[in-house]
């Protein structure tokens, strides 16, 4: 039996598209910030007495359909470790599930850590990152804390994350505006597949990401939060253009998402630097220098209410316990 805790991460340069659906090999590199406030804790126990895998998330037992991704992942761990028993998986999300706040990132990183340890494997962080990737692409990056890069690689062996700056030595902070924490209608998996298959703009996306990766790494080296924020905001808007331009077109934005984007722009016009990024869901994350937190927090409180705001510092990498 083993337990792992992994934090979510929010991409500043997004992963949006796979070149291999089964191995989850991405079309592009990506880069993210791991967050302290949002995480998943998962316990795995292989038990000879069980006649099927049993998956409980937030105290609710999942049915066969809803536990499919987790059961496939456990099959992979069994195949690699030689463990033959079914498992009991108990997971708690300290993050809204399937709402565009990267629950799949913390979930599959934690599951990779707990399941591999419970099966007696002792993987280094690179192999954990590769294993987590098989559950959800964004989970590849949640093995590490701070600023993390996922190089797309060429195959299963070479596609994994690397920490760029695990202990973030400058004042970057992220504030999540919880606009809607219900389960989204279009999963990240389906949304990105539709974008790759049908958006005529997808062909320029790899060039955009290649350019943004170089620029953001320079900005990180320079501790330049404004440059990081600008790159992240533009990159996010270009990712969302791939959903709008799909056929049929769709969007993860709702009217409050637009309201939050405009609030950030208005703050900027008034001289308070901050930037937004948005994942596959309506919730908006604001990037800024923590020394600007107060006016940003006050302005957003007026529009959205304190109970919808979560301020987060950079978070740490995965922790695994053998219970
Ligand atoms: P998100 O924006 O939250 O990452 P995704 O569509 O990428 O949304 O992934 C959501 C899916 O991740 C869920 O439907 C579920 O299959 C899986 N998931 C979320 N939390 C957990 C968990 N704690 N354990 C196992 N799987 C999870
Ligand atoms: C917009 O990692 O959730 O958050 O690999 O199919 O599980 P699957 O998708 P997922 O997609 C994340 C998309 C994103 C951008 C990012 O995290 O890089
Ligand atoms: Co996800």
TrEMBL record:
Classification via Pfam families: MDD_C, MVD-like_N
Enzyme class: lyase
Gene3D superfamilies: 3.30.230.10, GHMP kinase, C-terminal domain (3.30.70.890)
Keywords carried by this UniProt record: ATP-binding, Lipid biosynthesis, Lipid metabolism, Lyase, Nucleotide-binding
Domain Diphosphomevalonate decarboxylase-like N-terminal: 6-161
GO aspect biological process, one term: isopentenyl diphosphate biosynthetic process, mevalonate pathway
Ubl conjugation among keywords: no
Annotated Gene Ontology cellular component terms: cytosol
EC code: 4.1.1.33
Molecular-function annotations in GO: ATP binding; diphosphomevalonate decarboxylase activity
Start and end residues of each Mvd1 C-terminal domain: 176-307
PANTHER family named among the record's database cross-references: DIPHOSPHOMEVALONATE DECARBOXYLASE
Family: Belongs to the diphosphomevalonate decarboxylase family.
Protein's UniProt name: diphosphomevalonate decarboxylase
Organism (species): Limosilactobacillus panis DSM 6035
């Amino acid at each position: 039996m083993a337990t792992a805790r992994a934090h979510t991460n929010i991409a500043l340069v997004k992963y949006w598209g796979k070149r291999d659906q089964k191995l989850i090999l991405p079309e592009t590199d990506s880069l993210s910030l791991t967050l302290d406030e949002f995480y998943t804790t998962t316990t795995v126990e292989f038990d000879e007495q069980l006649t099927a895998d049993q998956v409980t998330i937030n105290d609710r037992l999942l049915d066969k359909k809803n536990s499919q991704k987790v059961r496939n992942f456990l099959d992979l761990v069994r195949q690699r470790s030689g463990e033959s028993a079914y498992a009991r998986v108990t997971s708690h999300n300290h993050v809204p599930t399937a709402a565009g706040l990267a629950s799949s990132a913390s979930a599959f990183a934690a599951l990779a850590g707990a399941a591999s340890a419970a099966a007696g494997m002792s993987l280094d962080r690179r192999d954990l990152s590769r294993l987590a990737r098989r559950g959800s692409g964004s989970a590849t990056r949640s093995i590490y804390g701070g600023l993390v890069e996922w190089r797309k690689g060429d195959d299963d062996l070479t596609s994994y994350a690397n920490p760029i700056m695990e202990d973030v030595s400058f004042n970057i902070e992220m504030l999540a505006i919880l606009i809607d924490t219900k389960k989204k209608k279009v999963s990240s998996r389906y949304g990105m597949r539709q974008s790759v298959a049908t958006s005529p703009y997808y062909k320029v996306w790899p060039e955009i990401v290649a350019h943004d990766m170089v620029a953001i790494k320079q900005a990180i080296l320079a501790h330049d939060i404004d440059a990081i924020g600008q790159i992240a905001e533009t990159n996010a808007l270009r990712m969302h253009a791939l959903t709008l331009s799909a056929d049929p077109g769709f969007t993860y934005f709702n009217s409050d998402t637009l309201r939050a984007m405009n609030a950030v722009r208005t703050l900027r016009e008034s001289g308070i630097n901050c930037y937004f990024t948005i994942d596959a869901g309506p919730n908006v994350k604001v990037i800024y220098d923590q020394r600007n937190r107060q006016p940003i927090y006050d302005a957003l409180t007026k529009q959205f209410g304190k109970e919808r705001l979560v301020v987060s510092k950079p978070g740490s990498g995965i922790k695994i316990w053998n219970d």
